């Protein structure tokens, strides 16, 4: 497959502060389009924090302050004229814990298209919902009970529903924060398969604690450590021949 | 002082205070002028001291029984002390209470006989009511209080009363002190290395707690039974089982016929009262629900931490204002203002109106709705909000489409609780809604409510027994309504809790 590897997101010297506490201490990264980028690193090193900068989810946290530049397609997303609400429609997010709305499966998926007016008719909306559920590999399981509450699904189904919900908004970038941590191996495999497919249309950024997962699904990997990116390279290189000693220790499980 | 000692002393103090209450209070209030039997507080104090002594002695005995090896004791020393103390207190105070009550009724019957004998000797006749009054006066005279009248008969009876009652007090005090001392020695004998003082004293404490719970439950059941009893009386006696006349009749004037004879079952139609109640409730909820809900949304999703920190307590202060204050606020400020506003617009508004009462009642209910709704809105997980924001929803969209639907069951139950308060509220409507039972759905007119009519029946100058029938029946109906509302609300809340746990 011939992939164009345009740069989708550029971050330059990003610092994030929670009150006095500096959680991200100057991160510069380029995230490529049509690529799966994995963030790995020990707990508390700031992976989620950095990920949440990319769609300005950190705005919802009172004490959080972000400095530095983050550009999406060459436009500063923290610029005054950018509306974070519109930004988040372009940069979708899937959370660590499945969080379906207490609505029907259909309404969960239709939520984004409805608020953004993506569908002109009921038939349109039906099509978007079906397409999204199919892409999230959950259509066959739920097609007969689209009116059932989304909260009634199993954990793995809920997570795929959340992925469908994120896809339905037709984002350009999909951010996934440990999307498989609540899933069994089968559901994990399905989600990984999905991520693999998503890459054709999106830039995907995934935070994971599983080295195998990072190796399986990603093309680029960033190793975070204490609020810094110590190493960012091709996934193959990171996992076979890392430059940094800390990376080596982390991926081989001898971290300490 | 360890925990058990503290508990022991608190129990003793409470027991003394409860059982010797009136005398001790009188003694404390006015130590010089105390003219009740000084023996009573002295006895209670002695029992109290004895209980404390039992604690110390019991503990000491267990320590010495252990002979320096405290680990040999089944129960820690404090439990031995607690055990002894509890028994001394129960024996002493318990005997006091029981003997006091029995003694008093015995004295009363003796006095009754004495009075009868006196009347017979003097060849006089006296109605039972008058006899009771005379006996009451005799007692008042004996206790140095003001009697309704003073005559030789009363003074003679007073002297007799003082004599018999003096004996009673001595007997009661002696018996209770005796029992306390007995308990002191019996428990003391029991204390030893193997004695399971912890289990025993915990059993006693558990029984005390059980009795407290029992009192609360029995009171509820008692009130309920008397409500049901009087309601049945009324249903059978006045309505002759024509419950429909009460539930669907439209004329409320229950006391209009009582002077000429019986209550007229055609004039106890409660419809005007219920219509008035519901109209005022609806007005109140029209005020309270939007304001309360919006306040809750503001507090939970928009207010900064610092604003929330003072705004929430402020709202809760509103809940602490006595309803009587709201009542005269409604009657003195709001009702005339509404009338003036009406006059200005050319509308005729009554001096007391459903609107005034309803609006003020709504203000009263705002904090209930806002505080409960704020809790349930806060309980909606942040992850749901994040999910919505992550899809590019605005704050308003998130609140309207995710947060409120998720919190809806809780909000509904908050509203139901608000309604049940509005239905049962009395003070505001008594002052601001009016008393005339006219059947209307015009909020600008004077209306009356169930609670207002109960007040009028009970406070009116009709004989209480006659007025009680309709009053109890109204009360019972109201009780059933609020109970149903509360049950539904509780059920919804419970269901809602399960959804996120
Ligand atoms: N809402 C918050 N308020 C204050 N501090 C925060 C907040 N969220 C994260 N932090 C701090 O920021 C640092 C980075 O947290 P972050 O959640 O980004 O770590 P992470 O790499 O995602 O860890 P994990 O792998 O455990 O998810 C931590 O020290 C954390 O204590
Ligand atoms: Mg994280």
Automatic annotation (TrEMBL), chain A:
MF-aspect GO terms = ATP binding
By its UniProt entry, which InterPro entries does this protein fall under? AAA+_ATPase, ABC_transporter-like_ATP-bd, ABC_transporter-like_CS, P-loop_NTPase, PstB-like
Domain (ABC transporter) spans 9-251
A Pfam family found in this protein is: ABC_tran
SMART domains per the UniProt record, alphabetical: AAA
Annotated coiled-coil segments of the chain: none
Q: Which UniProt keywords apply?
A: ATP-binding, Nucleotide-binding, Phosphate transport, Transport
Q: Which PROSITE patterns match?
A: ABC_TRANSPORTER_1, ABC_TRANSPORTER_2
Q: Which NCBIfam families match?
A: 3a0107s01c2
Q: What is this protein called?
A: Phosphate ABC transporter ATP-binding protein PstB
Gene symbol of the encoding locus: pstB
